[in-house]
Amino acid sequence: MSRWLALFLFLLAAFAVAGIGGVATASSVREWYPSLAKPPWNPPSWVFGPAWTLLYTLMSIAAWRVWLRREEFGSLANQLLGLHGVQLVLNALWSILFFGLRRPDLALVDIVILLTLLVVMQCRLARLDKPAARLWVPYVAWVAFALSLNLAIWWLN
């Protein structure tokens, strides 16, 4: 497979997750979410779209870098790529739980698992591919921030 086709497929997978999140979020973000008590550090709504677009792009490039070096990394590359798929599922599931089902409690469990997985992946990436690890940092930071928001919203409501 061409390296550019592979990058396209990583981006496609990430933005498919974004699409799932968008569908799960659509009605709740207009009707339910505005009615919730939120912490003072809750960002304005317009921040989320650009932030996630950047994050999905960076995570795709990081995974692609691992894919490009999969022969060099061996089974660890396959493990990382598998974990990448799992984290995409957890990412989509969070939107479904929080916005789709309006269950911040279940979403909190999901995001704790997601952040734990992302930190494990960050540690492995740091040993294998420093540029990929640097690309992964904003995603880990954003999910940690999102966890604090999720926790606060659950607590306040």
Give a quick rundown of the structure:
The chain is mostly helical.
Main beta sheet:
none
CATH superfamily assignment?
TspO/MBR protein
Written as H for each helix and E for each strand, in order along the chain, the element string is HHHHHH
Compute the number of structural domains.
1
CATH architecture: Up-down Bundle
Number of strands: 0
Average pLDDT taken over every residue = 96
Radius of gyration: 16 Å
Structural class: mainly alpha
Annotated CATH topology = Ferritin
Number of helices in the DSSP assignment: 6
Uncertain parts: none
Question: How much helicity do the residues have?
Answer: over 70%
Protein name: Tryptophan-rich sensory protein
InterPro entries: TspO/MBR-related_sf, TspO_MBR
Membrane topology: Multi-pass membrane protein
Keywords: Membrane, Transmembrane, Transmembrane helix
